[in-house]
Design a protein that fits this description.
The complex is a heterodimer. By secondary structure, chain A is of the alpha+beta class. Chain A has ten helices and 28 strands. Chain B has two domains: 98 residues, Rna Polymerase Sigma Factor, Chain: A (Orthogonal Bundle); 74 residues, Orthogonal Bundle (Arc Repressor Mutant, subunit A), CATH 1.10.10. Chain B is 68% helix and 0% strand. The chains are: A alpha+beta, B mainly alpha. Chains A and B meet through helix 1, helix 3, helix 4, helix 5 and strand 11 of A and helix 2, helix 3, helix 6, helix 7 and helix 9 of B.
Chain lengths: 598, 186
């Protein structure tokens, strides 16, 4: 048979092998194959080729999932605009209903389509969302760089579930590659319910000493009979909604809008010191790299739900973020995990809480509750009686104890409530939330809450007790700010970073002279517990000797010393000692304050 | 996917969730398909770092466009067509296609030593020009149908058929003829 006779059949052979011939052509070809040995040889060869191609060694394929997901999250997917509009309308409408109930008259970002919201809008909306949140479930991924030189990158999977107001489960699973198995894995498990709190984390070991100091044992500790919203067993809820991080609108800037993972988001920028409630929530246990107070933080927050979608921390001068926290799934519609079994293993602390009926307690209840509802009540082993209130993530605690046991802290701001009573206010810090102290002839009443300052003060004013002025803190005389600066040698700052205002002022005798002290704080949160303290004295001739390490700075022709550990700048100029203490500020800012003293 | 298997289709619910902007669902897709996409691009380009770049670009493009995926074609075909477009863009950008094609046109005959059983099928594949290698890779390594390949390449099914056949004949000539001791006319 000539080649031209075979040709049509041979051309069909590949399609025949691939099962791509229609039945008619297949039948014809099969008939031909039965009679044509040459074509059978070709068929055999072609089958051999197919087998060889299919059986060739599989290439080593890299896993690019992380790299792809990082780029997807960080890119601006412009073509999602359509979805964004739909989403904004749908969720915006629902959120507006929720918000209208609690924030009447507030200007809401989604009502200002096309314009970027103000920081105050964002803060107001996050607070509203915190009241509305009943349950939540999410997964995050963390990429951290620079923890240890032998471990350039670490990766973590985070799962969190929450049922308002006090039930939470958080797990941090370490997916990093370590040089060897002796390195401790930074796996963390935190579980809490209204009665108990428990954490399992690696035993602390200074990062610089790793892996030599390795003690692979994990530690477990917990609290039983837990007081409501106990500061010592705090829940890392800023991971869910950055309520404390964004508590003060002066703590961040709204720099734009972007679509992150298909969600319309606001891009917020802040310094690391102001993002600490969020970072502390993410790093609820275990060992993590440290950052400087002024390192840059970008937070992308969903403008419909106000959940954080992506957070990046970039050290000053670096281009690449060293900490990236990225939400991979968020859900506030499911029930959370339901009941959580909180273990009582490891080192346990008795929270000393005894639940009691509110009527049996001698605690004056506020008349105004800012929309919160009664929650747990009881007494503590230290003799405090407590009423608590909650809604979503927002809570309030009113505790009363017999008078005469506590004075108020020196950093507290003296405020006059709308009912005329004197009270003492403290912004939130690392351990405690915002606080108002009231003193009566028989009781010391402490209100603690994550409500904003204004609301908390209004709640305090609705407590009908005859509050009076507390004795001055020991060793000082409380004065007005004007009085503190009326001293001849005292100078007033002409520059302060945004949000700082005078909170308290004192004068006190200092050796042969007098000293004045003025404390400046922001209204909602001072994570370091202080803010800015300015002390001036005409009685100090030499800077006191100290074992601290100092950096030398020239201020207005005079040598000053800066203690990075204490965040304190001290100098003597024209016979007057001045010191500025600001643990959360960098030297540049403190020098700017010093140069602005007039 | 093992060599020669076909690409698995994702769960339609996962695709639907990803279409609605669920990033976790999309990540599931990335996890399931990134190896296939990488291998596909690698077989087109024969360059590992280019395969890394193109794979990433392809998924980002897929993420941006997943809202437009209507389920008319198989998801894997849709994804591979994006990967192919990205690869072609990359070739064009870097002038690699010209270089690549020039290289292909040379189609060096196997040497004496190569014409043995040990002659690497990869080398044989590599020696094919892109226009015949592409449909062969799609069909034999990724299990695509002629119709899928025709859609993907934008050529008639008949062209796919003849290109695949030509590719196999060339491979048989280079890879098998000597090793099987068969010198017959193909």
């Amino acid at each position: 048979m000539s080649s031209s006779v075979h040709e049509p059949y041979r051309d069909d052979l590949s399609a025949y092998i691939d099962g791509e011939l229609d039945p008619g052509a297949r039948g014809e070809l099969e008939q031909h194959l039965e009679t044509c040995a040459e074509c059978r040889v070709v068929e055999k060869r072609l089958r051999g080729v197919v087998a060889a191609v299919r059986l060739q060694a599989v290439e080593a394929v890299p896993n690019l999932t992380e790299a792809i997901m990082e780029r997807i999250t960080e890119e601006q997917p412009l073509t999602l605009k359509r979805q964004e509009r739909v989403r904004r309308f749908r969720i915006g409408a629902a959120a507006a209903v929720v918000t209208a109930a609690v924030l009447v008259g507030s200007s809401l970002p989604w009502l200002q389509d096309g314009s970027v919201a103000s920081a105050a809008d964002v803060t107001g909306s996050v607070r509203a969302a915190a009241r509305a949140l009943e349950s939540y479930r999410a997964e995050y991924k963390i990429v951290e760089r620079g923890w240890h030189e032998a471990v350039p990158v670490r990766r973590f999977d985070v799962r969190v579930s929450f049922n308002a107001p006090e039930t939470m489960s958080l797990s941090i699973e370490d997916r990093s590659n370590y040089p060897s198995a002796v390195w401790p894995r930074n796996d963390v498990r935190l579980l809490a319910d209204p009665n108990g709190w428990w954490i399992k984390e690696p035993r602390p070991c200074p990062v610089a000493a790793l892996p030599i100091c390795v003690d692979t044992l994990e530690i477990e500790r917990g609290v039983t009979d837990r007081q409501p919203f106990d500061g010592g067993s705090r829940l890392p809820t800023d991971l869910i909604l950055p309520l404390e991080t964004l508590a003060g609108s002066e703590n961040f800037r709204v720099v734009g809008e972007r679509v992150i993972a298909g969600h319309a988001a606001y891009e917020l920028e802040m310094e690391f010191r102001d993002a600490q409630p969020f970072v502390a929530a993410v790093e609820a246990g275990g060992s993590w790299r440290t950052f400087e107070p002024t390192d840059r933080v970008e937070m992308f927050i969903d403008r419909a739900t106000w959940f954080p979608l992506l957070v990046r921390v970039t050290p000053a001068g670096a281009e690449q973020p060293d900490l990236v926290v990225r939400a991979v799934s968020l859900n506030d519609t499911d029930e959370g995990e339901g009941d959580i079994d909180v273990p009582a293993t490891g080192t346990l602390r008795d929270g000393g809480w005894t639940p009691e009926d509110p009527e049996s307690l001698d605690v004056p209840a506020p008349g105004f509750l800012s929309g919160l509802e009664p929650y747990r009540s009881g007494s503590t082993s230290t003799g405090r009686e407590v009423l608590s209130y909650a809604r979503g993530l927002t809570w309030l605690k009113v505790a009363a104890e017999p008078a005469g046991r506590n004075s108020y802290p020196r950093t507290a701001e003296s405020v006059r409530l709308s009912n005329g009573s004197p009270a003492y206010y403290l912004p939130a810090d690392w351990y405690l939330s915002r606080r108002v102290d009231l003193f009566t002839s028989s009781q010391h009443i402490v209100l603690e809450s994550n409500l904003p300052r204004e609301d908390l003060i209004e709640v305090a004013a609705s407590i009908s007790v005859a509050a009076r002025r507390a004795p001055d803190p020991p060793g000082v005389t409380v004065v007005s700010v004007d009085e503190a600066y009326a001293l001849e040698f005292a100078r007033e700052p002409s520059y302060l970073p945004e949000g700082y205002r005078p909170s308290s002022a004192y004068v006190f005798p200092d050796g042969s002279g007098t000293a004045s002290e003025v404390i400046y704080r922001r209204s909602e949160i001072e994570f370091d517990g202080l803010g800015i303290r300015l002390v001036q004295s005409d009685a100090v001739e030499f800077l006191p000797p100290s074992s601290q390490e100092f950096q030398s700075v020239v201020l207005d022709g005079v040598r000053a010393r800066w203690s990075p550990d204490a965040g304190e700048l001290q100098w003597i100029s024209h016979g007057v000692y001045r010191s500025i203490t600001a643990p959360s500020l960098d030297l540049g800012t403190v020098v700017a304050i010093a140069n602005g003293l007039r | 996917m093992p060599a020669g298997g076909s690409v698995q289709e994702p769960d339609p619910r996962t695709v639907e969730a990803a279409r609605r902007g669920d990033i976790a669902a999309f990540e599931e897709i990335v996890r399931a398909f990134q190896a296939d996409v990488w291998r596909f691009v690698f077989h087109l380009a024969r360059d590992e770092s280019l395969a890394d770049d193109v794979t990433q670009d392809a998924f980002i493009k897929a993420f941006r466009n997943i809202g437009r995926y209507r389920g008319d074609s198989r998801f894997s075909t849709w994804l591979l067509s994006i990967a192919r477009n990205c690869a072609m863009d990359e070739f064009r950008k870097s002038g690699r296609r010209r270089k690549l094609e020039a290289e292909m046109e040379r189609q060096p005959r196997p040497t004496e030593h190569d014409q043995t059983r040990s002659y690497d099928i990869r080398e044989a594949l590599k020696s094919l020009s892109l226009d015949v290698r592409e449909p062969l890779v799609m069909i034999d390594l990724f299990g695509l149908s002629y119709r899928d390949v025709s859609d993907l390449l934008g050529v008639p099914v008949g062209t796919v058929k003849s290109r695949v056949h030509r590719a196999r004949l060339l491979l048989a000539e280079r890879f098998l003829s000597e090793s099987q001791g068969d010198t017959g006319e193909l």
